[in-house]
Each structure stands twice: as C-alpha cells, then as structure tokens.
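Table S2 (text version). Query chain:
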Amino acid sequence: FDFSPPGAETLPMEAGPLSAAEWFERALEHEEAGRLSDAERAYAEASIAGGGFGAGPELPFNHGNVLYGLGRKEEACAKFRQALGLEPTYAEAWNNLANALADLGRLDEAVGAYESALAVEPGYADAHFNLAETLHQMGFAADAVVFDAASGYVITNAHVVDGAASITVTFGDSTPRTATLVAADTAHDIA
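Corresponding structure-token output:
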C-alpha cells in the first residue's frame, strides 16, 4: 500500500546497512515531504537498526505520528505509549495518545491521557482544547474551557484556578498570556 498523496514522488529506500540515525533522518525527510508510507518504513528500519539510537522518545513518538496519519490508530497508540515509557513527562506524546484514543472511541482513556498531558504542562493549549472537545463529545460540556474572542474572557472551572498565584493562558499560536481572575463561583465551579 502506498498512502502518499497523489503525484508525490517517492525516494528509493536504499538497501544496505544504514545506521538507526540515518534511517531516522530518512524517515524525517519522507515525513516532511508527505510520503507517510515511506516514512513509516524508515522509522521501522530505524527501530530495527537500534544501536542505542532509539533510547530516547523521539523515534517512537515520530513513528506514532506517522502511523496516526496513515489511519493506523491502534499501532500509533502503542508507539506513543512506548515514547511515554521512555519519557513519562512528554506532554505531546500524552496529547497525541489521547487524540488516537478519542478517534478510536475510547473517550474515558482519552480524557485521562489529556489530563496527564496537562499535569506535565498545565498551559498546553492544544491539550486543553482537545480535552474540552472530548468532554463535550461525552456530554460534559460544563467541564470544557470556553474562550470568547470578542471579549477576551476565558471561562473554566473554578477548581482549575483556585488558589493560583498567577494564571497564564496559552492560545493556539503558542503565545502565553497573563490572565486575571475576574470572578469565580465555587458553588457552580465556574471561573
């Protein structure tokens, strides 16, 4: 199967002894060019070649991203879990694992993974958004964060900001902004 976009030219997969680092670099090139099936094969070869190169989480994380892009969500979950086994504080891996789980309909597991991403990186905007989307999908819209761009107000649960010495909100452009608590209703858990 070739999942490359129509018209995409594939680079030959060189036969012969490449190192894990060379396979990894080849995979990155294929991925950047949109040749996901070639990238997947190269990441798999990098894993096989090993040689100590795969000791960090980048190889399984990137491999998981490509598998996700190819629609192979269960395999992507396994790779994201492998990355997290190597680096449990890898917020992006938690987020991407959660995305794959959500796509598989395993929403409770996805919520737990999003929460793990946010425990590691509390200002991670994508994880906040994805968690809110998943909670909304589950019928828990009240637990989702809401942003009103016209007024600049962010509405969240009061327990999220309760006792915070400072509040920073990071939006989709990855720019952190200092926020001020305007009001909180702890009885209804809204801030």
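Notes on Table S2: The chain has a mean pLDDT of 84. Residues 60 and 82 are 6 Å apart (CA to CA).
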